[in-house]
Amino acid sequence: MANTKSAIKRIQVAERNRLRNKAYKSAVKTLTKRYQEAITTHEAAPSAESSQLVQERLSAAVSKIDKAVKRGVLHRNAGARRKSRLSRLLKAAEQSDSNSTAAVTESASEAVSA
User: Fold this and answer.
1) Which segments within 20-108 are labelled E, that is strand?
2) CA-based Rg of the chain, rounded to a whole angstrom?
3) How far from the centroid of its chain's Cα atoms is residue 105's Cα?
4) Which of 30, 73, 92, 98 lies at a CB distance of 3.0 to 4.6 Å from 68, suitable for a disulfide?
5) What ranges does the record list as Basic residues composition bias (predicted)?
6) Would you place residue 91 in the very low, low, confident or very high pLDDT band (cuts 50, 70, 90)?
7) 5-113 in CATH: which number?
């Protein structure tokens, strides 16, 4: 147990900071999961609404990551890495979406020419 006033205050400050850090980290994880769910939904049934939802979820997650970095909860590089992973997921989803669209168009053109 702390013996001095300054040690007692440091314990209180450390606890307050720990709870703040925990809240930010939890929010980042939650928003990341929501974003991944939105991408999965969009891949299953692509539409303009689902695409907009994916963009909104990405924006919310990136914003929360930036705030966590600004407050010192996450390191700069850790925040950049997380944002990179989020954008890579979106790019992969768009890639698979365009591939499936191209395959459908190609099979339709083959059917017409046959």
Assistant:
1) none
2) 22
3) 32
4) 73
5) 76-88
6) very high
7) 1.20.58.110
